[in-house]
Amino acid sequence: MNHFPKWTATDIPTQLGRSAIITGTGGLGYETALELAKHGAEVILAGRDHAKGEDAVKKIRSTVPSAQVRFAELDLASLSSIQAFGERMTKERQSLDLLINNAGVMTPPTRKTTKDGFELQFGTNYLGHFALTAHLMPLLRKGKNPRVVHLSSIAHRNGAIHFDDLQFERRYHAMEAYSQSKIAMLMFALELQRRSDASGWNLMSIPVHPGISRTELIVNGSGPNSPAGILRRTLGSVLFQPAAQGALPTLFAATSPHAKGGTYYGPSGFSELRGLPKPGKIAPQALDPAVASRLWEVSEQLTHVEFD
Predict the structure, then answer these.
(1) Which domains are delineated in the chain?
(2) Fewest C-beta atoms under 10 Å: which of 209, 233, 248, 306?
(3) What pLDDT score does 226 carry?
């Protein structure tokens, strides 16, 4: 893998005629939307905060006056909001070329739940995106070379799927719950590719991670005065790469003709913490197809969606 080409945002091919939905309006989602808009894609930024969403759209338009970009309301912590979003998109659109499952919450110190009673990180980061992907599948299957990009994390390395306590009701540990949500995303991405290949869905499903990037994720989750928040404030500029660089693996997976379905991309530097995109290391426990298949079945039951 030493010969993997150096890839930056200047290598993004024209995205004219391509449409994208990106979840999350700040940080990585914003940087991803900005680059796709610069290269001619039609972009829908989906998030729950209307003011923040409209602000992101305004900022993109001030940089790219020709941008085809708009905000759409979507709360990933609510299955009814996800279903309503899916129905709106199906009414408004003929097809969709690109879905980027980007939004996330990280390590709230006490256990919180989504509107449907799921542990907040598992429910938002993973189950919400699982349901969203299912609702948008009919549009994606009509897309041109459709791709779904899923944000995992280096935290997946310590992750496992706790089928006996998926929602951490018995014992909540913030980082363990976060790691579970991110290994679930990775396993979902790989399983979606397997099922697409088996069923002829003609879809590329690509997991990525941003290394450690300067976004508001930690501050919004653990709080600015948590150990992680303090580390972010004091050492952030040294340890953490800018969000624009953290978005490169996502952009590579979304646009490069060299990106491959079912391949995991992340930064190329030490321990995959920062650097330009290249294929990343997948923890062995994420490669178990039996666990992935079981997770898929459980997720369909919990979210009341089906992919067929």
Answers:
(1) 13-303 (3.40.50.720)
(2) 306
(3) 52
